[in-house]
Amino acid sequence: MKGFPNQVAELSKLAIGMRALTSIIDEGSNPKDDGIFGQALVRVGVAGTGHISLPVDEYIRQQLTKPASNQSFRTTARGLRELYRLLDFIDDSGLQIQVTDLGRQAASYADMPIDAEQMDFWRRTIRNLKHGDAGQVSHPYQVLLRLVGQKPGITRAKCALALEAQNDSPQELARIVALADLSEEEIRERIKETESNWDNAKKVLPAFAEQLQDVVRDGQSFMLADAPGRADAGTAQQGERKVVVRAPRTSRLVTPNTIGRAGTKIRSDEFNIAREVNPAAIAEAKRLLSARLRRHNLIVQELASRLDGAKLYEDPFDLLALIEAIGILFEVKTLDGTDADQKDRVRDALAQLLYYEAFVATPIIGEAAVHKIACFEGPVSDAHREWLNNSGIGVIWKVENDFEGDALAKDFLGDHIQLR
Predict the structure, then answer these.
(1) In whole angstroms, what is the distance from residue 158 CA to residue 147 CA?
(2) In 74, 208, 262, 271, which residue has its Cα 20 to 30 A from 35's Cα atom?
(3) Which pLDDT value is given to residue 361?
């Protein structure tokens, strides 16, 4: 089972901790020093003073009388740095920590109410969190949601199995789904895991899912919310499995003439705007976002216009086409022509399609097939197409007034959309 830092699970505290880390750097100190970062975390309330409430300065003085290995705020500092690294907030591979744009954005949310903008940021960041080495990488949060989708009513403790998956493959998902039928003791014995590591593994990811309202908890049992962030809408439909596709209740039934009309909407997954204080920078960022969003929506509209006879839905996904017992799930990405942007858009497409699949796959659709399609504004690299194909995602892209696609996309789309 993959280790995972369990010191802090509250989104608001993660933001405050990032602000503390950036402040240490801005002051010329090094947050790689567990003592410096750990004491800062105590002072801002991210690390506690233990079961007995003490004034912060007194608590720190007491801790400093102990050997460094026994100072609890040092443990918190190490664990939080590891989590920030997994979230891509920092690069701590060198002597000094480098804060990424994502990390700066997280720090800017410190002590702010968690509104829709901030919730979107945390959901996007946590679903993109990846864990493992180059050969065995998984996205634990996405695995968690797929696990809950396959095993509605799974206990919070067994959600720890999301960290047992070595990668995002259907085979690994099937393996951990089968393990979920065993008792906790039997699972630990089967995967050769200690009780303490198992207890740590079940703490953070389920807490994230609750805060993001992607699951509904009943006692110690978890079920998927009807759609991402919609725990208030209830759980995904349960009951007898039928070969039928159903869109989440929170989705909108649309037509080719009404889909993708949010041309001035500022929120978008197309790219991130760092929180700026420069009015000119804000205006330029919004102009670029508006242009990309318009191009994005035109592609969505063109796809919808080619799906004759399908029921079309949007939100939270770009497009879900329901055709008899088949669902075709599309995620559309524009490109700015740079390698860095292509990498980000491909990564986002993978994360979103796997993430949204959890809300249109079992238990919602029963045994029906869902085909996942990533659609890009232009061609992406062969390596990126192969990477997406390995996760069961077909790839198509715009070419003049038409679409071209790889073999998997052609197999998924059949006669529904003609590809070059």
Answers:
(1) 10
(2) 208
(3) 63
